[in-house]
Amino acid sequence: MATNESALVPSQRMRVAYILTVVGGFLDAYTYFERGGVFANAQTGNIVKLGIALADGARDRYLFYLAPICSFMLGLMVALGIKELLERRQIRLVRRSILLAEMVGLAIVGLIPLGEEWDKLANCIVSFVAAMQYETFTTFRGEAIVTTMSTGNLRKFVDALFVGVVRHDRRRLRRAGIYLSIIAAFTFGAFLGTRACAVMERAAVWPAIVALGVTAAIITYLRKRNHLGQIHDVK
Questions:
Q1: Are 60 and 166 in contact (CB under 8 A)?
Q2: CATH number belonging to the domain at 13-234, selected among 1.20.1250, 3.90.550, 1.20.1440, 1.10.10
């Protein structure tokens, strides 16, 4: 049975998924073009580049790729810690807290000068906040959707499309459409990030901060609306 979107918590709404996915593609383009060719969200690329650097004996590049990988892992642990702490205290601010942390981190990145040594720090911060987003925002409209990379979404799109076509399953076809739209949103984010880098250079990260702020505002608004609706139902 398809999940009724109106019954979902605000952070699971598809409009949130689309904005966060656009931000994911945007940040990958930003770190690639402005911060030394690193993919801060998708660590697979950095792991491959680390392996190539090891094979080539390029010792000066080891840390450049290893640092964001370690920062990504640290970001995952911190996100888990924040969720554990807030949920244990029954504080319903987990996702908005993560968004605020992302905004602060990216604001710092926007102030960091360009240059290889500074780029290492910037990439670590972006990888850290991307990991927090990856760990915290995982389910939208009853589907497991990744907002910081596209490989998993691409696999799920093909799987749903295949089953939908072979078995004439309209529900699976609709599911395929959701994943295709998410992939398109990530691509659009990369497009916007590329254009922003051409004009704004290191400051190109600022539009992502605005988008995260809009996401937090949407979640806050929907939570308030849902709360008022529950009070009305009780009355």
A1: no
A2: 1.20.1250
